């Protein structure tokens, strides 16, 4: 009997951090492929100009595996700029043509997104005629939707078509976030009418921080995108360029919705600040009125409580009543002065 091989826990990833691998042939859905088979498939020679007819491979890696980047460097024809992006602190979304490769940094939300700024992470993508390579550190929603679409039998004629589908999935995710945020803002606005301002103010601040970070990270760099659409790589077809241009235009519309939602939240915050200021003014006014009303009795009580000679009405049997009437008279005068005196 052959010896049993121990099971290795890879936490959802294959060897060298591979999360999933698919090979696409013209007119056929993607079929799973292992790393060793993918390297052999990519090593097959193809005639110039026939890369599209030969199909392409998609490999998706988990960078928390320390061996993933090393394997990619040793077995995949990736430009050095791709690995520079992995270590670069700049996370703005961009898509560039570098050494006949489409090198992209795509920011996306976590799979279990709960409207926290920390739940926005990057996906690094490199697209060539024969391969699309993507890598991430945290589970992301858009790339997972793309993986599910491939598993359900979606067909892609080129690697750029796969990238376009990823961008459209990201746009759909953003549309969903905008809708959820709009509902949350509506609830906050309803809460403002009931004057429950404290929790609503915190909720608005959190939503605005998330939207600002989404806009800052998701807006593509216009210069790089313009250069790419004007001079794409030779292996990218006109249809793929048109699809890419349409995807970016749809993405721009979503960004405009984000900006409009930010402006609405800003106006609500200003209205909430005005309401809080008005409540504070009312509280200060009430405190001032109470202080004024209590002033006569405090002054008279202080004078009569000094226990010195010559205190008036000390020997009068109706002295307490007279003092009470004096205090009541001054209090009524102060009340009239505070509430009814016309300026």
From TrEMBL:
GO cellular component: plasma membrane
Transmembrane intervals: 284-308, 320-340
Database matches in InterPro entries: CorA_cytoplasmic_dom, CorA_TM1_TM2, MgTranspt_CorA/ZnTranspt_ZntB
Gene3D superfamilies: CorA soluble domain-like (3.30.460.20), Magnesium transport protein CorA, transmembrane region (1.20.58.340)
UniProt entry keywords in alphabetical sequence: Cell inner membrane, Cell membrane, Coiled coil, Ion transport, Membrane, Transmembrane, Transmembrane helix, Transport, Zinc
Record has Ion transport as a keyword: yes
CDD domains for the chain: ZntB_u1
Domain of life according to the entry: Bacteria
Intracellular or extracellular location(s): Cell membrane
Coiled coil start-end: 244-278
Bilayer topology annotation: Multi-pass membrane protein
GO MF assignments: cobalt ion binding; cobalt ion transmembrane transporter activity; magnesium ion binding; magnesium ion transmembrane transporter activity
Protein family: Belongs to the CorA metal ion transporter (MIT) (TC 1.A.35) family.
Name of this chain's protein: Magnesium transporter CorA
């Amino acid at each position: 009997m052959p010896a049993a091989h121990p099971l290795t826990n890879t936490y959802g990833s294959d060897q060298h951090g591979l999360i999933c691998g698919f090979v696409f042939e013209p007119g056929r859905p993607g079929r799973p492929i292992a790393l060793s088979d993918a390297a052999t498939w990519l090593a097959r020679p193809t005639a110039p100009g026939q890369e599209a007819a030969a199909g392409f491979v998609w490999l998706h890696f988990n960078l928390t595996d320390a061996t993933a980047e090393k394997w990619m460097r040793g077995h995949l024809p990736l430009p050095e700029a791709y690995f520079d992006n992995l270590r670069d602190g700049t996370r703005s979304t961009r898509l560039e043509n570098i050494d006949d490769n489409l090198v992209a940094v795509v920011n996306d939300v976590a799979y279990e997104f709960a409207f926290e700024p920390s739940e926005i992470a990057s996906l690094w993508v490199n697209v060539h005629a024969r391969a699309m390579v993507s890598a991430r550190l945290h589970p992301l929603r858009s790339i997972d939707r793309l993986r599910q679409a491939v598993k359900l039998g979606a067909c892609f004629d080129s690697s750029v078509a796969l990238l376009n589908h990823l961008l459209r999935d990201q746009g759909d995710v953003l549309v969903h976030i905008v809708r959820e945020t709009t509902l949350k803002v509506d609830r906050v606005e309803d809460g403002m009418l009931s004057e429950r301002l404290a929790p609503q103010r915190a909720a608005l601040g959190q939503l605005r921080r998330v939207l600002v970070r989404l806009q800052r990270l998701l807006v593509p760099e216009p210069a790089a995108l313009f250069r790419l659409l004007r001079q794409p790589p030779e292996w990218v077809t006109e249809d793929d360029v048109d699809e890419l241009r349409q995807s970016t235009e749809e993405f721009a519309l979503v960004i405009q919705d984000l900006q409009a939602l930010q402006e609405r939240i800003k106006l609500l915050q200003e209205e909430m600040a005005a309401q809080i200021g008005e409540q504070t003014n009312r509280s200060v006014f009430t405190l001032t009125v109470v202080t004024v009303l209590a002033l006569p009795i405090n002054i008279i009580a202080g004078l009569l409580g000094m226990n010195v000679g010559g205190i008036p009405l000390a020997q009068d049997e109706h002295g307490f009543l007279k003092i009470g009437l004096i205090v009541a008279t001054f209090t009524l005068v102060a009340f009239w002065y505070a509430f009814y005196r016309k300026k």
